[in-house]
Design a protein that fits this description.
The complex is a heterotrimer of chains A (263), B (203) and C (377).
Chain A lengths: L5 E9 L2 E6 L2 E7 L1 H10 L5 E5 L11 H10 L4 E4 L5 H9 L4 E4 L1 H5 L3 H9 L4 E9 L5 E5 L4 E4 L2 H11 L3 E6 L11 H10 L4 E4 L5 H10 L4 E4 L1 H4 E2 L4 E2 L6 H7 L11
Parallel strand pairs in A: 1-4, 1-12, 4-5, 5-6, 6-7, 7-10, 10-11, 11-12
Antiparallel strand pairs in A: 1-2, 2-3, 7-8, 8-9, 13-14
Helix pairs in contact in A: 1-2, 6-7
Chain B lengths: L1 E4 L6 H10 L4 E4 L2 H4 L4 E4 L5 H10 L3 H10 L4 E4 L1 H4 L4 E2 L12 E5 L10 E9 L14 E7 L1 E5 L5 E5 L5 E7 L2 E4 L7 H14 L1
Parallel strand pairs in B: 1-2, 1-3, 3-4, 4-12, 5-6
Antiparallel strand pairs in B: 6-9, 7-8, 7-10, 10-11, 11-12
Chain C lengths: L32 H12 L6 H16 L6 E4 L4 H12 L4 E7 L5 H14 L2 E6 L2 H14 L6 H18 L3 E3 L4 H4 L13 H11 L12 H10 L3 E3 L9 H12 L12 H15 L4 H10 L5 H9 L8 H12 L3 H9 L12 H13 L8
Parallel strand pairs in C: 1-2, 1-4, 2-3, 4-5
The chains are: A alpha/beta (263), B alpha/beta (203), C alpha/beta (377).
């Protein structure tokens, strides 16, 4: 038996405001992050991810007061990322009751931080964000700083490297698909998941519950993170939080389909 | 008043938050005097077996726990490492555990491709009639786990819950007023809330 | 608010309204003015035999106004029983609503789940107006610091403004309202402040707010009049014309739409729940359930004994009321001491701040002249 497939609402913060982007652009205001955390907790979401997408750009450290408040409403594992660049910040965030932190830009721009953090806090506390997009003249690019700076040209190699440095899991985002609700980049997910031992979480593109199952059952992701799917409703993309209820979960992940009868 | 033993080996905040949400008075402390007036005790813990036992000894809590829980019969709930220290020893370390429940801790098996540490949500099969699990579905409850070792009790009569991960292990034990759960109720939303609520109200 | 004159306790012999409404008046039989008001309102409706025809012509009106457009009405969905039941009826009546949800930042999960199930099962399109949370928080903090009675005005005011503006943007001429006589008529003047009073809202904000109110939807009576009379956006209230029984309605929407009850009237919003179970009763001695139950008694939907038994039950019973107060404190940024100070501070009247009294009568007269209802919501 393995662990249950992970379906993870992924919320984006601009300071203390919840927003949703499309391909990392055009942020749209969604409301209060604290109430969103409370609602997902009441929906029994098995974990929650919160990413501050402007902290690094604006040179802001993580907002510990807000993170503490979010942690106090989450009675399930909470993962936080955004603006983390120091060991002391990681310690402070984990102390607030956050389960894992996400290193994005820092994993590329602060060599040694990931390995040090893994040695200090354990790999299981560390998630790394790998954001992938197409290059102008073809091929893929691994980027940081919200897609603006290319730091590698091979997602699989980069993933292997970070796993080797001590990452406990990978948040793999296909930038062009984010907010598009047309499905994940299953090829990308499959390639990276096959290349590393650590869990890979697919992100960017989920538009239907079936996409979540595809990422996990077909592409080998350990988890599927989604923004639009869990915050929008209907053709006008009305802001309305949702999750996957028990009945739908059982339909998407029938026991027979799961490896070695996981649950 | 529930006393949460804060011996520095885990984040008691989440447990306190959950008890607060349940409206159950609670306090966290590393001092026996402060924990003296609590009617029930919770021992959390994340990390290594030896580190836990060493800390409890350093803080002079062993005698306190022995008296309050074993002699005076105060209801006790060990969470994660707090359950593992109930045993006599662990394959993870060299120190002796509390020895309240005969048995030792062993490394999780990796049957069926299971990875260690076991991290994530898994289904738990619950024994009926155990007040800690009242109103929780016996066969479709799930909880959040983070661990590499598990307790193997000498007497199977004290097993009150099992998990099938990695070939199977004991997820919860009970001996009179002493209970231990390998999972984290404070991270298991509605299942954890129900369980801690039961601990506060029925145990 | 009328100052509380020490009068002996008295409760209506017919409904359950009592002297916690300081303006209550009893006739020689001991029947209160709310009962008489209910009877009068009932008498103004078409007689029962004519109601189906009245409903049919109301629906025709809506369809006619909406012909050729994507939607013929706007329907505010809160996740509560009235709007959910209305949505079900709208579908059955063949209307084509645009569902509008106002997210004040206080949605309970049950409300959100109810809205999701409702629009999915009925196949309705939905839009959400998301309130700027920092502004809503500042405004609600201002009301609590002002120590006035109706701290729920910010949500109530914004909701109406949002419905009108959504209708205007989408070119829709009808706002379908779930407001009904059977459960919502009885409401002492001293227990509320008119949510439409934008002047009072701005005055309280000016006195106690800390940030400018820019994105928050403030709608003046001028704007309302403009939208009603010039843009032609009308409220229609069909539920009063049908046999609306709240208990049966709850059972029906539970069965048809998977609707879940959240324990108390208007508890879809966690703030409203705090307001009605904590703030109002403890600070002002008002239990709004009394008005709601009195209405149900007058409508014959519960007996007086059942209503009295219900009132005997603890307010906020069901969940964890301490958790609700804690959460409200957390969201509004008050620590325990500050909240305690707010609760203990002397009550202030809304009339201690500027109100719309100067404008209202002339504007309502103008409204009547332009051909409309005499009620301002």
């Amino acid at each position: 038996m393995l662990t249950r497939p992970r379906l993870i609402p992924c919320l984006l913060l601009d300071r203390d405001r919840l927003v949703k982007t499309v391909a990392f652009r055009r942020p749209r205001y969604l409301g209060d992050p604290l109430n969103a955390a409370r609602i997902f907790n009441d929906k029994a979401a098995d974990e929650l991810m919160v990413l501050d997408i402007t902290a690094t750009d604006e040179g802001r450290p993580p907002n510990l007061a807000l993170i503490g408040q979010l942690a106090s409403e989450c009675f399930m594992p909470l993962t936080y990322g955004g603006g983390i660049g120091e060991l002391t910040q990681i310690r402070a965030i984990l102390r607030l009751g956050v389960e894992k932190v996400v290193l994005g830009t820092a994993a590329a721009e602060r060599p040694g931080l990931l390995a040090q953090a893994a040695a200090t806090f354990g790999a299981q506390s560390l998630c790394v964000a790998i954001d992938v997009r197409r290059r102008l003249l073809g091929g893929e690019a691994v980027t940081v700083r919200r897609g603006r700076r290319i730091i590698a040209r091979d997602a699989v190699a980069w993933a292997r490297r970070l796993a080797g440095e001590g990452a406990g899991e990978i948040l793999l985002t296909r930038i062009e698909r984010e907010g598009g609700m047309q499905g994940y980049d299953l090829d990308l997910v499959a390639r990276v998941a096959a290349a590393v031992e650590i869990p890979v979480i697919a992100h960017g593109g989920a538009g239907r519950q079936e996409h979540l199952a595809e990422a996990i059952l077909r592409a080998g992701a350990a988890g599927a993170a989604a923004g639009s799917l869990f915050v929008y409703q209907g053709r006008h993309r009305a802001v309305l939080l949702s999750y996957v209820n028990d009945a739908d979960f059982a339909r998407l992940f029938p026991p027979a389909a799961l490896p070695a009868g996981s649950g | 008043m529930i006393g949460v033993v804060d011996y520095g080996l885990s984040n008691v905040g989440a447990i306190l938050n959950m008890l607060k949400k349940l409206g159950v008075p609670a306090l966290a402390s590393d001092r026996a005097e402060a924990l003296e007036r609590s009617e029930k005790l919770i021992l959390p813990g994340v990390g290594a077996f030896d580190a836990a036992m060493a800390r409890l000894r350093e803080l002079d809590l062993l005698a306190f726990l022995e008296r309050r829980v074993r002699r005076e019969g105060v209801p006790f709930l060990g969470i994660c490492l707090g359950m593992q220290v109930l045993a006599e020893a662990s394959a993870e370390g060299g120190m002796a555990g509390l020895g309240w429940i005969a048995g030792r801790n062993v490394r999780l098996r990796r049957d069926g491709g299971a990875r260690v540490p076991h991290m994530g949500w898994s289904d738990v099969a619950l024994t009926a009639d155990e007040p800690l699990f009242r109103h929780l579905p016996a066969n479709s409850s799930r909880f959040y786990f983070v661990h590499s070792y598990c307790l193997e009790p000498a007497d199977p009569a004290c097993i009150v819950a099992r998990c099938g991960y990695g070939g199977g292990f004991v997820a919860a034990v009970r001996l009179d007023n002493i209970r231990g759960v390998q999972f984290h109720p404070e991270k298991s939303h509605r299942f954890g809330l129900a369980l801690l609520g039961n601990f506060a109200a029925r145990c | 608010m009328t100052s509380a004159v020490a009068r002996p306790y008295q409760v209506c012999v017919r409904c359950v309204m009592d002297t916690s409404d300081p303006a209550i008046a009893f006739d020689e039989r001991g029947v209160c003015n709310h009962c008489r008001g209910y009877d009068a309102a009932l008498a103004r409706l078409p007689p029962p035999g004519e109601r189906p025809a009245a409903l049919a012509s109301l629906l025709d009106r809506i369809r006619r106004r909406g012909r050729g457009r994507d939607y013929d009405c706007v329907l505010g969905l809160s996740g509560g029983v009235d709007s959910t039941f209305l949505a079900l009826k709208a579908k059955q009546w063949g209307l084509r609503p645009l569902a509008v949800h106002f997210d004040s930042g206080w949605n309970s999960e049950i409300a959100v789940g109810n809205i999701e199930r409702t629009v999915k099962r009925l196949g309705f399109d939905l839009i959400t107006e998301v309130c700027d949370w920092p502004e809503m928080r500042d405004l609600q903090r201002a009301y609590l610091k002002a120590s006035v009675l109706d701290a729920d005005v910010p949500q109530d005011h914004a909701f109406i403004a949002v419905l009108f503006r959504a209708a205007a943007r989408a070119g829709i001429g009808t706002i379908l309202s779930g407001h009904n006589l059977q459960t919502e008529l009885v409401l002492p003047d001293d227990w509320v402040h008119a949510p439409g009073d934008w002047i009072n809202l701005r005055a309280i904000h000016r006195a106690h707010g800390q940030a400018p109110l820019r994105r928050f939807p403030v709608m003046s009576l001028f704007e309302r009049l403009w939208r009603e009379r010039v843009q032609g956006i009308r409220f229609e209230r069909p539920l009063s014309l049908i046999d609306y029984d709240q208990k049966t309605a709850m059972a029906e929407i539970a069965a048809e739409l998977g609707w879940v009850y959240y324990g108390g009237k208007h508890w879809e919003s966690v703030f409203t729940r705090f307001f009605q179970t904590y703030y109002l009763p403890r600070k002002f001695g008002i239990d709004k359930r009394r008005a709601h139950l009195a209405n149900l008694v007058a409508a014959g939907q519960v007996t007086r004994d059942q209503a009295l038994a219900e009132l005997g039950r603890n307010l906020g019973a069901g969940d964890e009321p301490a958790d609700v107060a804690n959460y409200v404190r957390k969201k509004l940024g008050f620590d325990e001491e500050e909240l305690a100070r707010i609760m203990a501070a002397p009550r202030r009247s809304h009339h201690g701040f500027a109100t719309w009294d100067g404008y209202r009568r002339p504007l309502l007269r103008l409204r009547r002249l332009l051909g409309g209802e005499t009620r301002a919501a």
